[in-house]
Amino acid sequence: MRLAKALREGVRLIPSRTPFLLRKYLPLLEISHYGGAVPRQLGELEDAVMTRVWQWNRPVTVREVLEDLQKERSIAYTTVMTVMDNLHQKGWVRREVEGRAYRYTAVSTRAAYSAALMNEAWSTSDNPAAALVAFFGMMSAEQRDALEDAMRVVGQRTDPADAASPAEGASSAEGDESADDTER
After folding, report:
1. SS3 of 60, please?
2. Residue 20 phi/psi, 5° resolution?
């Protein structure tokens, strides 16, 4: 049963770890503003600005971002203002007028952005299975633990010993239908 359906029906997915896993991974399952389109990778300064917007998780002004960036580098107010305007034009942030300034808010999470980039990289591989094996081989033990937790949340199996028997695998259409529930 997929997470979205389970949540609608009030089903506990993993009795002992459900609350922790849901708090940790539920934001990753949101429908991002990217839809089916994959965002292009952010430039260095765009990433520095978006990192602050994502971390602060509240509406921010150009002045706030500028002051924080100036702790690391020399940068002009107009440069930050231009970058934030560009991010607004590209759909990364929304903005609302407050007095004579704008307050900017992220449209989606960094996790959703990262997931879209990973999906794009994986889907363009000429051998997706080999790409996944190589990616998993690069992971630290902590990253593998996070992956296992995330797989539990979305109802997938990570242990090859848990793989479906041929008789169970025959009902793949039902699995596809439940996958659609997660994306809605």
Report:
1. strand
2. -60, -50
Task: Give the DSSP per-residue string, 17-49.
Answer: THHHHHHHHGGGGSPPTTTTSPPPPPPHHHHHH
- pLDDT tens-digit series, residues 7-27: 444 444 444 444 444 444 444
Backbone angles phi, psi at 106, to 5 degrees: -65, 140
4: pLDDT confidence band, cut at 50, 70 and 90?
very low
93-98 and 101-106 strand pairing: antiparallel
How far apart are alpha carbons 158 and 162 in whole angstroms? Answer: 8
Identify which of 58, 67, 70 has the alpha carbon closest to the alpha carbon of residue 98.
58
For residues 110 and 32, the answer to whether their CB atoms sit within 8 Å is no
How far is Cα of residue 31 from the mean position of the Cα atoms in its chain?
9
Predicted structure pTM score:
0.58
C-alpha dist (Å) from residue 110 to 47, 86, 131, 142: 10, 18, 22, 19
Coil, strand or helix at 166: helix
Confirm if 120 and 40 have CB atoms less than 8 A apart. Answer: no
Contacts of residue 143, defined as CB under 8 A and 6 or more positions apart, other chains included, come to: none
